[in-house]
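Two proteins follow. First one:
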Amino acid sequence: MLDLLKERRSIRKFADRNVEKDKLDAIMKGALLSPSSKSRRPWEFIVVTDQEMMQKLSQCREHSSQFLAGAPLGIVVIADPEACDVWIEDASIASIIIQLTAHSLGLGSCWVQVRERFYSEGVRAEDYIKKSLGVPDNYHVECIIGIGYPAEVKKPYDEEDLNYHKVHFDNYG
């Protein structure tokens, strides 16, 4: 697990190659197995492989989402806040499980934050995505995860560079 965490990096450049169905199935199993508060599972997932829709989703934010146009797969993580008061945390846990599962299968991924971000001045990214994908009003969009075979190589994290000063025992001091 530690090796997986050291090696997993945000990948924004993808090879022109589709993700196989068995790998997509494994990623979705991982997402559906994600822990949630009181097992309420407020999250749902919209799997996007249509490249025209990926192009549209790549424009969901003023900055930082354009790489989605080159991703062969996107998973939009949504949640029903009525199902659980900690839907943000539950959706975030599912999102990182998706990324770790993808990495374990030789795929790269990158998270695009949607909640509290903007498509354009006065237009929330969430509203743009909900309209584009037909998401019901009562759901919120946490993020989009772009996934594919990496077309870039990033060096793993080095344990010697970890911020151990951020770890406290028994109290902050």
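Second one, unrelated to the first:
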Amino acid sequence: MKKAILLLLTCLVFSCSQKNTPIDSTALKAEVAKAEDDFKNLAQAKGIQEAFYTFADSNAIIKRDNDSLIKGKEAIKTFFSNPKFKKAAVTWKPDFIDVSNDGTLAYTYGKYVWTVTDSLGNKKDFKGVFHTVWKKQKDGHWKFVWD
């Protein structure tokens, strides 16, 4: 019985003594802004498929065409392997970034421009609003879990 009480008291002391280290939300928001910018730059330099694959968390989900959900990093890569994405380009900039109180999740939203080139070389722009949810990885990088 004494051992059980000692163990309980020890657990209580350790749980009460843990300090909640305040996060630096400004620094974390800057990290997410950089991830957004790196994501966009990779899409412009190496293509949409490469960028979405590189910045996707293994369990990422994207919502596309007719509200269908593409689940998982590999499925996202397959989705963007469609040749129509080779003739498309996208650019965006977040208007807003926020980070969770524990610094593990973030979300962004802003405007994007999706440009499609047809078989004659004519370009057409489609504008919209994006919303992305980001998750901080164990290695410190940010990957999207929802787009």
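SUMMARY FIELD: DSSP finds four helices and six strands in the chain. The two ends are 54 Å apart (CA to CA).
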